[in-house]
Amino acid sequence: MACSSFSKLLIRRQLLARFRSSPPLSSSSSSSTLLGAPQLREASTAPRVGGDGALVAPSRASHWIDSSRTLSRASFSSRASDIDESQAPPQSIIEEEFHRLADDTIHSLQEKFEEYGDSLQMDGYDVDYGNHVLTLKLGSLGTYVINKQTPNRQIWLSSPVSGPSRFDWDSATKGWVYRRTKAKLLQLLEEELEQLCGQHIDLS
């Protein structure tokens, strides 16, 4: 019995020493793995006591676990934090309010353009409105096209000077603003028409 107890004690010490001397998993090896791919890490399980009283070391297969789910959650959080909320589109006005504001602006421009044409001596000057599209022809100088885009809640402008622009309603300034350049629709038209025709026009 003394010999058997001594043998068991020796086996316990050998197994415990082998477990303590096994090298830990290197963190550098796991960092080189592609993000999102299944990764394994060693679980910190201790040797258990068998039915005969002897220490039993855990098998290598049993104490490795998959950490891909943890990495997947981490990568999702990283991507979500990269979103720049400052680039989110502005909140749109309701459709009924958009039609009222856009129609008032376009009809006012039509009247001002017609009055402006009466004071000019320009061949080919013409103002036309139809199907929610306002067209201003300046003969050989070019043509302006102004129309409303209901799905975008915008007024679109095609200019022979500045090209295409899209204007959103700005409730702070009570006007239509091109968000890319901060240009105001009425002010832009006043400046360009005076540049082309040589005569000031007041659209406010």
UniProtKB/TrEMBL annotation:
Principal localisation: mitochondrion
Iron among keywords: yes
Catalysed reaction equations from the record: 4 Fe(2+) + O2 + 4 H(+) = 4 Fe(3+) + 2 H2O
Keywords: Ion transport, Iron, Iron storage, Iron transport, Mitochondrion, Oxidoreductase, Transit peptide, Transport
Protein name: ferroxidase
GO molecular function: 2 iron, 2 sulfur cluster binding; ferric iron binding; ferrous iron binding; ferroxidase activity; iron chaperone activity
Gene Ontology process terms (BP): intracellular iron ion homeostasis; iron ion transport; iron-sulfur cluster assembly
Protein EC: 1.16.3.1
The species this protein was found in: Ananas comosus var. bracteatus (red pineapple)
Localization in the cell: Mitochondrion
Pfam families: Frataxin_Cyay (PF01491)
Keyword Iron: yes
Family membership noted in the UniProt record: Belongs to the frataxin family.
Gene Ontology CC annotation, any one: mitochondrion
Domain of life of the native organism: Eukaryota
